[in-house]
Amino acid sequence: MQNLFNYLALALSAILVVFPPPSTAQPPQNPGAEALLRWKQSLANQTIVSSWIFNQTNGNSSASSPCNWRGISCNAAGNVTGLNLAYTGLQGTLDHLNFSYFPLLLRLDLKVNQLNGTIPTNIGLLSNLVYLDLSTNSFSGTIPLSVANLTKVVELDFSRNAIIGQLDGRLFPDRGSSQAKTGLLSLQRLLFQDTLLSGPLPPEIGNLEDLTILALDNSRFSGPIPQSLGNLNVLDPRLPPPKSQKLRDELDSILNLAVWCLRTDPHSRPTMYDASQVLEMNAGAGRESPELVKSVREGVDELPMLS
User: Fold this and answer.
1) How far apart are CA 119 and CA 107, in angstroms?
2) For the chain, what is the largest distance between any 2 Cα atoms, rounded to a whole number of angstroms?
3) Would the keyword Secreted turn up in this protein's UniProt record (predicted)?
4) Which domain holds residue 265?
5) What is the pLDDT of residues 201-250, one digit of tens each?
6) For the chain, what is the domain count?
7) Radius of gyration of the chain (CA)
8) Among 2, 153, 241, 275, which is least packed, fewest CB within 10 Å?
9) Sheet-wide strand order for 91-92
10) How many beta carbons lie within 10 A of that of residue 96, not counting itself?
11) In the predicted model, what is the mean pLDDT of the chain?
12) Does some domain include residue 153?
């Protein structure tokens, strides 16, 4: 009996050698690529992402790299650093795009498409993101508070979407602390045009020290304009910085006057005469140049009397 078992085991081994089990080809282990493919499956059949496939023909691993897929860019190490499918007519949601697999992503540009659903909470995991543009889609819901983790984002554009709710002050840096660690610390361009966002602007928005563009038109914001906006650097970044402290002081005064003119209550806004008085007072303190005061005075003299 023992000899019979030995014979059967030997015969089975020979069969396995001659007829090995069929190979099940597995795609290369690339978490980022696999995350993109899972998202692709949720987008149905769209030619925009038809190049997103694993191709192992002749063992060509380069053909399997997501770095060769449409809209994907990578660094020298092969890590995904950019996802740009703007103006492609892409349809679907971001629900099945797991952002945790893209820790080195620098650019996410999906503007002018037909994406819908909510902005996922895990978008806040893109800790190295610099550019985020989801504008001109059909996103709804509120802005997730996790966006405050995008401390390196320079431009954020959610314009022309059906996003609702109020701006949470925690989205912006808390400059009252010794060193702010969360909030949109690096933001230079913030655009919320043509949205359903409403309510007052949080005073913390004035803590965006590097902000140069703030576009909120055609949304539903209400209430007073925070005086903290006077702290913002709104000069065109293409302009050279003022070389003299005198000019910086003049620009600061003009900016503060501009914020004063934007008060909600018309009766609390300054007249042109008030503005010239402020500038003249500052000139007496050695801040404004006589030429600046004179130009404002001349403008006032040319205007009809306002009631």
Assistant:
1) 16
2) 120
3) no
4) 245-280
5) 999 999 998 998 899 989 999 988 888 887 776 555 555 666 666 666 66
6) 2
7) 29
8) 2
9) 91-92, 114-118, 138-141, 162-163
10) 14
11) 79
12) yes
